[in-house]
Amino acid sequence: MRGTYTAVVTPFDRSGNIDFNALDKILKMQISAGISGLIVCGTTGEAATLSIEEKISLFEFVKSKCENIDIVAGTGTNNTAETVKQTKAAINAGINKVLIVTPYYNKPSCAGLIRHYSEVSQTGAGIVLYNVPGRTGINVSPPCLEKLAEIENIIAVKEATGDMSRLAGYFDAVGTDRFDFLSGDDFTVAPFISLGGKGVISVFTNILPDLGVAMVSAALNGDFRKAADIQISLNKFNQAMFMEPNPLPVKTSLSLMKICEDNFRPPLDKMEESNILKLSEILKDYSLI
Question: Does the reported pTM lie above 0.90?
Answer without folding.
Answer: yes
